[in-house]
Amino acid sequence: MTTSFLRATALLLVLATAACSKPEPPKKDQPPEPQASQPQPAQDTQLRDAIQQPIDRAKAVEGQVLDAAKQQQDAIDAQAGG
């Protein structure tokens, strides 16, 4: 019984060390194949559009905000006498 136990242990040890070996390096002549799947175009534009919409809205009203600020500053200056 002891010899069969030792043989089984030795076999498990050999299998464990074989499983821990280094993977082969990729060949230099051929680039590795991509492993990630290609993203869907709809997903790319959906996120980009969600980020870009508030920026576009802010740019659209930027002129109005600057004009209102100038009018307010002019009104303050007129009341202050300066």
Explain what you see.
The protein has 82 residues and is mostly helical. It has a domain at 41-82. It is 71% helix and 0% strand. It has 2 helices and no strands. It has helices spanning 2-19, 41-80. The mean pLDDT is 83.
Helix content: over 70%
- Return Rg in Å: 35 Å
Q: What percentage of the residues does DSSP assign to strands (E)? A: under 5%
* Terminal-residue CA separation: 107 Å
Q: Categorize the overall geometry.
A: rod-shaped
Count of runs of 4 or more consecutive helical residues: 2
Low-pLDDT regions: none
Give the class from helix and strand content and strand pairing. Answer: mainly alpha
Mean pLDDT: 83
List how many beta strands DSSP finds. 0
Helix-strand pattern, N to C? HH
What is the makeup of the main sheet? none
